[in-house]
Specification:
Elements lengths: L3 E4 L12 H10 L4 E6 L3 H4 L5 H7 L2 E4 L10 H11 L6 E5 L2 H10 L2 E4 L3 H14 L2
Parallel strand pairs: 1-2, 1-4, 2-3, 4-5
Length: 133
């Protein structure tokens, strides 16, 4: 059962401008699911997009892994996040604009939705969540 949703930042939440439709949708998702930000940005770079108070308001946790030495699409990055969250890979859904990152998430055992547009992502994510219900 999918219950944790991980969103990438650049290309998803910023495309290149702030994707307010998706950010508003995250608030709806948080009523039923845990929602996380999982980005290859460093913590300081992420501050340019979401300050600390907004990160806490929008996400259950933030994983800004830039500078860690292990970045997406390395499957170890997905493993590290699942370990930190104490979840199995098959409980998570990754939303990313990178095909390579989606392939790596699936290889690790997560579901993945490639972001192309808000409507497409909402539709595809809903289908994944319904399958896992």
């Amino acid at each position: 059962m999918h219950k944790d949703i991980l969103f990438d930042c650049i290309g998803v939440l910023y495309t290149p401008d702030r994707n307010q439709l998706l950010i508003d949708y995250i608030q709806q998702l948080r009523q039923k699911y845990k929602v996380f930000l999982f980005s290859n940005l460093s913590p300081s770079s992420l501050q340019r997009y979401f300050d600390t108070s907004e990160q806490k308001q929008l996400f259950d946790a933030v994983f800004a892994i830039g500078g860690s030495g292990v970045l997406k699409p390395d499957t170890q990055a997905y493993s590290d996040v699942c370990e930190d969250l104490l979840i199995a890979a098959d409980q998570a859904v990754m939303i990313d604009d990178s095909s390579d990152n989606c392939v790596a998430a699936r290889r690790f055992g997560m579901a993945a939705v490639k972001y192309e547009s808000f409507e497409q992502t909402r539709r595809d994510l809903s289908a994944v969540l319904e399958q896992g219900a």
